[in-house]
Amino acid sequence: MSEDPRQGRSTRAAAWRFLIVGGANTVATTALLIGLSYLMPSWLAYTIAFAAGLIFSTVFAARWVFTRDGSHRAALVYALCYLVIYFVGLLVIAGIRALDWPEYLNGLSVIVTAPLGFVAGRIVFRERQREEPADG
Fold first, then answer.
1. Transmembrane residues, as ranges (predicted)?
2. Whole-prediction pTM
């Protein structure tokens, strides 16, 4: 079986759209995270910024990034994936705090969480291919 060349183009196109939407989301939520990190505990700042980013991402991911009409079920699964990603990010923040690095470095959590978000969206909102009946 040969691989469909459209699949590679589709993944690249989705990656570019994810970079645009995700980039806007990342800039906004990272600024929010850094600003809030000076006003409250880092874990709380991260939680608020992450929630804002999750809302933005859920609204735009299915329809614009992955060009699918996301069902309510898919949106719920996507949000649950992001719950796992949230805890990964909290671990990164805890590591930054344990190293006693400056608050603005909390933004480094994005390096870990952004790729995980793309993979989650790609899996949840992937195009469902119908199985062809076997000739026989």
1. 16-38, 44-66, 75-98, 104-125
2. 0.64
